[in-house]
Amino acid sequence: MSRTVMAHVEKIVNVYPIEGADRVEMCQLLDFHILVKKDEVKIGDLVIYIEADSILPDGLSKEDSAKYDEAKLTAEKATGEDLAKAEAEMLEILSRNTIPEFEFLRQKKFRIKALKYNKFKDPFGNKIVSMGIVFPLSILETIPKALGKELPKDITEGLDVTELLNIEKVVEDAEDIAKDVSENAVDKFLMQYKFYRSLKKKMFPKISGTWQPDFPSPSDEENIQKIYSKFLEKYGTEDDGFYVSEKCEGNSAAYVFKNKRNFGIIPSYHFGACSRTRFLKTYDGSDWWRTARTLDLEKRMKAIGKNLFIRGEQVGYRIQGNIYKFSGPHVFLFEVFDLDKKRFYNYEQFMEFCLKYEFETVPILDDKFKLLPTVQEMLTYSNAQSKLAPVLREGVVIRRKDNVKESFKIRSPEYLIKHGK
Question: Are residues 259 and 147 in the same domain?
Answer without folding.
Answer: no
